[in-house]
Amino acid sequence: MAGSGVFGEIIDGDVFKYYADGEWKKSSSGKAVSIINPTTRKTQYKVQACTQEEVNKVMETAKAAQKSWAKTPLWKRAELLHKAAAILKEHKAPIAEALIKEIAKPAKDAVTEVVRSGDLVSYCAEEGVRILGQGTFLVSDSFPGNERTKYCLTSKIPLGVVLAIPPFNYPVNLAVSKIAPALIAGNSLVLKPPTQGAVACLHMVHCFHLAGFPKGLISCITGKGSEIGDFLTMHPGVNCISFTGGDTGIAISKKAGMIPLQMELGGKDACIVLEDADLDLVAANIIKGGFSYSGQRCTAVKVVLVMESVADTLVEKVKSKVAKLTVGPPEDDCDITPVVSESSANFIEGLVMDAKQKGATFCQEYKREGNLIWPLLLDHVRPDMRIAWEEPFGPVLPVIRIGSVEEGIHHCNASNFGLQGCVFTKDINKAMLISDAMESGTIQINSAPARGPDHFPFQGIKDSGIGSQGITNSINMMTKVKSTVINLPSPSYTMG
């Protein structure tokens, strides 16, 4: 049960506390934010509704803690991260339970997310020691007209306070993918979790607390976006924002100051299927890519662009697999679980109804109960339908039949998104040429899009994001280059 045993101190009555200055605290607002269980549609948890004044205090302590943390040896920072990773894995059960209840993540996927997060933290500690343990040494006589009288030493130094804002769908994994690089690089960290996912984040932060990080170095602020959202992202104390989510990221980028931004936003990941593709492989990947975690993934397959000549066969194969997907509550480890909120379910339904009105072929009947939407494949989708362009973030997948590869590439590139995409063909030359032509951050060949492994570069272009993630890239992004130039006396001066 959440709130018992080692996690007892993070909860007061039925409200979870927030974390600041190494302690679990109640907000002076006296108010709480309710977290609705997507399956029962009833209040499951409550978290503190923090105030702007509390944000100011957190920023102050974060700044002070960062100063001494930056002087802490790398190996010591890594040691604490390894410790946190072990504690995180040890307490995977209560964190997974929160994920099941807050975001309706199937039970086995919830456990996997926590374990993967522990692995990410450990790898990050190792990688950080390697990357940050190196600098460069430049000599001046390599540039025209210069003598060897200057030596330049460069190193990577921390940015300061990093604000991390993860999304509901992977609240733990996408929080640690920001926290671990920030900490190993010598930054302090302020975490603003999503409302749905906040309790899993608070449990995760407690694991870092138990590992013994210095007070004030890590904070976790919960509350209403309307109250503290803009206040946090525009706060003068913030030196870097790492955000994963949707449209909000575009708004943040317009309001944030002159600081590094790392953003991974939405996607409309296209799957291009050529005539020579292994259709069984394609069907399996469409099911995995389109429907795992009910399609609530930025790297989910969001549109299938299939050559007309193989379209009938492929649609039949996918249909028979969709029929085998189990639908129901996350506790029962069903394949398709309720989507995160009623507004999300309503949005998905709007896209489905628009497609129906415009004549898409429904491969299954549309069925919804509360937030639970049955998996749906829409065939003969045309570019005038909203589902061809908008991101449903649900278990609904459009199939667009194409007459040529160029048509598929054109559809992919006409989107304002450019996160990932995939190509299925047995011809590696074609695959490479198509990959080059697709305007997306990552193209997978003969597999569904995916963010991991977590040390691979991960980035979007256009409205899908700014900067690049993946452990190594995140560490580099959360540091800046510092140069120290040593000036030697000129040769004539020394020889004279």
Question: What this model shows, in words?
Answer:
With 496 residues, this protein is of the alpha/beta class. The chain folds into two domains: 5-265 and 465-481, Aldehyde Dehydrogenase, Chain A, domain 1; 270-445, Aldehyde Dehydrogenase, Chain A, domain 2 (3-Layer(aba) Sandwich), CATH 3.40.309. Helix content is 39%, strand content 21%. It contains 15 helices and 26 strands. The strands form seven sheets. The protein has a seven-stranded mixed sheet with strand order 16-19-20-15-14-21-22, sandwiched between helices. It has a six-stranded mixed sheet with strand order 11-10-9-12-13-24, with helices on both faces. The protein has a four-stranded mixed sheet with strand order 1-2-6-5, covered by helices on one side. Helix 5 links the parallel strand 9 (161-165) and strand 10 (188-191). Helix 2 packs across helix 6 (198-211). The chain is globular and about 80 Å long.
CATH class of the largest domain: Alpha Beta
- Main β-sheet, in a few words? 7 strands, mixed
Please give the domain count.
2
Helix percent band:
25-40%
The named CATH superfamily of the largest domain: Aldehyde Dehydrogenase, Chain A, domain 1
**Alpha-beta classification:** alpha/beta
Shape assignment: globular
Low-confidence stretches: none
Oligomer: single chain
**Order of strands, widest sheet:** 16-19-20-15-14-21-22
Q: What is the CA–CA distance across the termini?
A: 81 Å
